[in-house]
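SAMPLE LOG
Freezer: B-3
Tube label: C17
Construct: single chain, 140 aa
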Amino acid sequence: MIEILKILHFIAIAGGVGASLSGLIVMRAAKAAEPQAAATLRSVTPRIGAMGAHSILLLWITGPLMLWLTYDGGTALGPMFHAKMASAVLLTLVVASMRVTIRRAKAGRSAPLQPMMPKLGLASAILGPLTVALAVLAFT
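STRUCTURE (predicted):
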């Protein structure tokens, strides 16, 4: 059971970090592209964001299960684990904010965070690898 959870967890890590970094790359390419090409590039980012959001959801399912099965709930884990969890929560909030903003904008509703989307994308591209690094330090 734990092996299956680990496999799913690592796949979700790859999907989440890949989504945050690829979204950043696509948006940078869109800035430099001709208007029609830029629109096409930007049209891909919601799908990339969905992949990232689904990856985070899978991480929130597999992570606590592994914690419970392997570390008896994780109550004895040290400060690096708590830093990793704080980073994971912050990453989740950033990605959720981006998803809500995209949905609101697509529906033609007010999306107050829309001007901050590039900064939120950069934050997710930083927080993803940071969370992975903290996890390595917490569990080794």
